[in-house]
Amino acid sequence: MSSLDSSPVSSSGSPDISSRSERASPESKHEQPVTSSEQINKKKARINYTNEQIQTLLKLFHENPYPESEMMENIAKDFGVPENKIKVRLFYHRCCLKHFI
């Protein structure tokens, strides 16, 4: 038996490629592991809202739990935060409110 005969062959008669891919591990690529200090640097900073900002958000929520996009844009500009942070904050507030009802 030659060395070619010992390689796995699929039913179609072609060599089985899956056995080759099993031998190639992700570690064989030249990827370096991410260290914990690099992970810390990539972590986004948490936004700390002032009491006044929280009161404004609560007032907005009580007036309309589903404010229009334009209103959220204006509040985000006033607060100096991205609009998606306001959307997420209101979303979580709606979720929490549902659990208490």
TrEMBL record:
Localization per Swiss-Prot or TrEMBL: Nucleus
InterPro entries, alphabetized: HD (IPR001356), Homeodomain-like_sf (IPR009057)
Domain of life: Eukaryota
CDD domains: homeodomain
SUPFAM superfamilies given in the database record: Homeodomain-like
Biased composition (Basic and acidic residues): 19-32
Keyword line: DNA-binding, Homeobox, Nucleus
Ranges of the DNA-binding region feature: 42-101
Protein name: Homeobox domain-containing protein
Organism: Dreissena polymorpha (Zebra mussel)
